[in-house]
């Protein structure tokens, strides 16, 4: 995505939801350096921003802690009134529930002719489906309170064409022209199913609420669901994790 987009000298770039800062440093920075631009990497989590500042410092990167949906004047102040030529976000938008306001906000942060490129998960993968089931089980309800924040309902693309058209229309309504919009089928092979199950626990943001001894039970429940939802053989040692990605590049027209 970062290489395929047309760059210009001095481009001002915003990364929305920068997380650990790895993406900004490893993938966006090389282009920013090449085009002598600069990069603001923004995240709502202060812990993430502190980590990114410490781990991936660079004179061309500024790490800012801010909510992309903060009130207009607050965000404007945090960004020193800057507008951008490019905005990128990777694996953020599936957590964003108010997609309309987010797209409108990002459109407002772009210069005319600027582009927003993003990639995120859709709703359709084992982790999200299983987590929804587990979160509603009596024994896990308390631990998973607020699980809805993990995955936004707008990323459901059951009828792909219908889902894509709805999103295209929304993007137009928010003042974007759609350059690329694709739903990509992807998979990741795990030769040890245990590693996959450990990963599910590792990325679970509610896990700290569970006592140590309950974690194995949770892992077992995910394993049980693997055999039910994905029809994986109970004795299977390996696992193919299949998922969809939504990939888009959208542009704010020169004249809007
Ligand atoms: C799953 S992480 C992805 C991090 C990184 N982009 C990557 O690909 O590794 C999502 C990040 O988006 C941030 N985020 C979520 N909502 C946000 C918001 N409203 N404003 C700014 N950042 C937000 C979260 O704090 C988190 O660090």
Automatic annotation (TrEMBL):
Q: Domain Methyltransferase type spans what residues?
A: 14-116
Q: Which InterPro entries match?
A: Methyltransf_12, SAM-dependent_MTases_sf
| SUPFAM superfamilies xrefs | S-adenosyl-L-methionine-dependent methyltransferases
Q: Do you know which PANTHER family this protein is assigned to?
A: TRANS-ACONITATE 2-METHYLTRANSFERASE, TRANS-ACONITATE 2-METHYLTRANSFERASE-RELATED
What name does the UniProt record give this protein? Methyltransferase type 12 domain-containing protein
Species in which this protein is naturally found: Orchesella dallaii
Classification from the root reads:
Eukaryota, Metazoa, Ecdysozoa, Arthropoda, Hexapoda
